[in-house]
TrEMBL record, chain A:
<dbReference type="InterPro" id="IPR013325">
    <property type="entry name" value="RNA_pol_sigma_r2"/>
</dbReference>
<dbReference type="Pfam" id="PF04542">
    <property type="entry name" value="Sigma70_r2"/>
</dbReference>
<dbReference type="InterPro" id="IPR014284">
    <property type="entry name" value="RNA_pol_sigma-70_dom"/>
</dbReference>
<dbReference type="InterPro" id="IPR013324">
    <property type="entry name" value="RNA_pol_sigma_r3/r4-like"/>
</dbReference>
<dbReference type="GO" id="GO:0016987">
    <property type="term" value="F:sigma factor activity"/>
</dbReference>
<comment type="similarity">
    <text>Belongs to the sigma-70 factor family. ECF subfamily.</text>
</comment>
<dbReference type="InterPro" id="IPR036388">
    <property type="entry name" value="WH-like_DNA-bd_sf"/>
</dbReference>
<feature type="domain" description="RNA polymerase sigma-70 region 2">
    <location>
        <begin position="18"/>
        <end position="82"/>
    </location>
</feature>
<feature type="domain" description="RNA polymerase sigma factor 70 region 4 type 2">
    <location>
        <begin position="112"/>
        <end position="162"/>
    </location>
</feature>
Automatic annotation (TrEMBL), chain B:
<dbReference type="Pfam" id="PF04773">
    <property type="entry name" value="FecR"/>
</dbReference>
<protein>
    <submittedName>
        <fullName>FecR domain-containing protein</fullName>
    </submittedName>
</protein>
<keyword id="KW-1133">Transmembrane helix</keyword>
<feature type="domain" description="FecR protein">
    <location>
        <begin position="111"/>
        <end position="191"/>
    </location>
</feature>
<dbReference type="GO" id="GO:0016989">
    <property type="term" value="F:sigma factor antagonist activity"/>
</dbReference>
<dbReference type="InterPro" id="IPR006860">
    <property type="entry name" value="FecR"/>
</dbReference>
<dbReference type="InterPro" id="IPR012373">
    <property type="entry name" value="Ferrdict_sens_TM"/>
</dbReference>
<keyword id="KW-0472">Membrane</keyword>
<keyword id="KW-0812">Transmembrane</keyword>
Length: 173, 304
C-alpha cells in the first residue's frame, strides 16, 4: 500500500522528516528540561517511537506527534532536574555604549539572577517563555505546537513574567 | 488587566517598548525590558542534524510489523450465503415479471396486453402472462371466462387446465369453468387443442366440453359474446352450468336439490337484475324459486 499514511516508513522520507524537525524539537525539549544531554535523549526516543510505529501514524500529524511524544517522555521522567542553561557568548549588553566595569558587573549579576529565576519556573511556563524569547514565536504558534489553546499560552507567559520579575527585583533589593 | 495584556503584546512584538511606556507611564518596565532582552541570549544547544541522524540509525531499531489479519473464509462464506439468499428472494419478489389479473364475483375487467391485444375478463376469472417473454411468446394462462381480441402477429396461445387455444389474430371467447370448457370463435380462425386432438374453429363455431366429453354446440351469429352486453347466453347447455353462472354473476348460492340439473337450457339471463335473471332461467323450465338472503332455492311448482 502506498497511501501517504505509510510514507513515514520509507527511509528517505523519514530521514528528511528527521532533519527538518530535529533542531526545533530539541530546542523545545531543552526549554522544557533545561538539560542539553537529556533533551537530545528525549528527541531521539521520540523519533524512535515514530519510526517503530510509522504505519500507524498519519504523516500530516507526525510533527504534532513528535512534540507530544517529547512532552510525554519528559513528563514520565523525574521532574525536578537541575536546569543547566547558559547564555550565548559575546552577546552585547543592553547599553552598548556604557562599557564601564561596574555596569558590566551589574549586568552579569542580573543575568545570573535571571538564569536562576528561569530555572525556578515550571516546565510549562519555561517552555512558553523561552519559545517566545529565543525563537521569537507568536503565542498562536506556540499554542499550535503544544496543542493547547492560545489563552493557556498567554496565561503561562503572564505567570512566567510575573515570577521572573518578582524574583529578579526581590534579589535586587 | 489591560496592562497585563499590553505586556503580553509587547513581548510578542506587537507593540514597541516606547509604546508601552507611553501607555502606562506610571509603571517601571526596566526590569521586564532587561529580562526580556537577556533571556533572548540564552543558548539553545545547536544540533548537528546529520550526526544526530547517524546516531539515531545506530540505535538499530526494530520496527513493529503491521498486523496482518487473515481473511476468515468462514465468515466470508456466511456473508455470501446470506447475500445469495437475499438476492434470489428479492429477484422473485421484485423482478417477478408475471403479470396477473383477476376478477371477483359479479365483476369484469378489461386488460390490455403489451401488443395491444385486448382481453375482457368475466367474473371470477384469472389471467396470468409473463411480461418479459411476451415479445418472444404470446402465451397466457386463463382460469374462468374471457373474451380475446388478438392483434395480428405471432402465435397467440391461451392455456387452460382443460385445453390450449392457438390463434394468429382474431376474436374469440374462452370459458373454462368447473366441468365445463367452451371456446367460441367470432372472427378469423381458432385452433383448440383438447386431449391432443386439434380442432379448428371458424367464425360462428363453438367447441364445447361438458364433464370431460366433447359435446356438440349449435352455430351462433352474434358478433360478441353476450356477457359483454351484461347478459349470459346459453344454447343447449345443462342447467347446472347455467346455475353456476348465475351464482358467479350475482354472488348467490342456488340450491336445486329436487330438480333435474342435467336438463338442457337455451336462452339468456341479464347481469343487471337478479329477479329478471332468475325468472328468465326458471320460467322456460317450468321452475320456480325462493329467495332467502343469499340463498336461492329452485323447485318445480308442479310439485307444490
Amino acid at each position: 500500500m502506498s497511501s501517504p499514511k505509510h510514507k513515514l516508513c520509507e527511509e528517505s522520507f523519514f530521514n528528511s522528516f528527521y532533519l527538518e524537525h530535529v533542531q526545533a524539537v530539541n530546542n523545545f525539549a531543552f526549554y522544557k528540561c533545561g538539560d542539553k544531554a537529556a533533551s537530545l535523549d528525549f528527541v531521539q526516543d521520540a523519533f524512535a517511537k515514530i519510526w517503530e510505529n510509522c504505519s500507524k501514524i498519519d504523516f500530516t500529524k507526525a510533527k504534532t506527534y513528535l512534540f507530544t511524544t517529547v512532552n510525554n517522555l519528559f513528563l514520565n521522567t523525574v521532574r525536578h532536574q537541575k536546569v543547566v542553561m547558559t547564555y550565548e557568548k559575546e552577546k552585547p549588553y543592553m547599553d552598548r555604549t556604557n562599557l564601564s566595569p561596574e555596569y558590566l558587573m551589574e549586568e552579569e549579576e542580573f543575568k545570573q539572577k535571571l538564569m536562576s529565576a528561569i530555572s525556578g519556573l515550571s516546565a510549562e511556563q519555561r517552555e512558553v517563555f523561552l519559545l517566545n524569547r529565543i525563537e521569537g514565536k507568536k503565542y498562536r504558534e506556540i499554542a499550535e505546537l503544544l496543542d493547547i489553546s492560545q489563552k493557556t499560552v498567554e496565561k503561562r507567559m503572564s505567570g512566567a513574567l510575573k515570577i521572573l520579575r518578582a524574583k529578579v527585583e526581590e534579589i535586587k533589593i | 488587566m489591560s496592562k497585563e495584556k499590553d505586556i503580553l503584546k509587547w513581548f510578542e512584538g506587537e507593540i514597541s517598548t516606547e509604546e508601552i511606556k507611553k501607555r502606562h507611564s506610571e509603571e517601571d518596565f526596566s526590569t521586564l525590558e532587561k529580562l526580556g532582552f537577556y533571556a533572548k541570549q540564552i543558548e539553545a544547544p545547536k544540533i548537528d542534524a546529520q550526526a544526530a541522524l547517524a546516531d539515531f540509525k545506530a540505535r538499530n531499531l526494530k520496527r513493529t510489523k503491521p498486523k496482518v489479519v487473515r481473511l476468515n473464509f468462514n465468515s466470508v462464506l456466511k456473508v455470501a450465503a446470506v447475500l445469495v439468499v437475499m438476492l434470489t428472494s428479492s429477484y422473485f419478489l421484485f423482478f417477478n415479471t408475471n403479470k396477473s389479473f383477476s376478477t371477483h364475483i359479479a365483476q369484469t375487467e378489461i386488460v390490455y396486453l403489451p401488443d395491444n391485444s385486448e382481453v375482457i375478463l368475466n367474473a371470477q376469472s384469472k389471467l396470468v402472462y409473463n411480461k418479459k417473454q411476451w415479445k418472444q411468446k404470446r402465451i397466457l394462462e386463463l382460469e374462468g371466462e374471457a373474451f380475446f381480441k388478438v392483434s395480428k402477429g405471432e402465435t397467440f396461445t391461451v392455456k387452460t387446465e382443460v385445453g390450449a387455444i392457438q390463434v394468429l389474430g382474431t376474436q374469440f371467447n374462452v370459458k373454462e369453468r368447473i366441468n365445463y370448457f367452451e371456446v367460441q370463435c367470432y372472427e378469423g380462425s381458432v385452433q383448440v387443442q383438447y386431449n391432443a386432438v386439434k380442432t379448428v374453429l371458424t367464425p360462428g363455431k363453438s367447441f364445447r366440453v361438458v364433464n370431460g366429453e366433447v359435446s356438440p354446440a349449435a352455430d351462433f351469429v352474434s358478433k360478441n359474446p353476450s356477457w359483454l352486453a351484461n347478459e349470459s347466453s346459453f344454447d343447449n347447455v345443462p342447467l347446472w352450468q347455467v346455475i353456476a353462472e348465475l351464482q358467479i354473476q350475482y354472488n348467490i348460492i342456488i340450491v336445486a336439490d329436487n330438480i333435474d340439473t342435467f336438463q338442457k337450457f337455451s336462452g339468456s339471463f341479464t347481469h343487471t337484475d337478479k329477479n329478471i335473471a332468475l325468472q328468465s332461467v326458471t320460467i322456460p323450465l317450468k321452475l320456480s324459486y325462493k329467495i332467502d338472503g343469499e340463498n336461492v332455492t329452485f323447485y318445480t311448482y308442479e310439485a307444490n
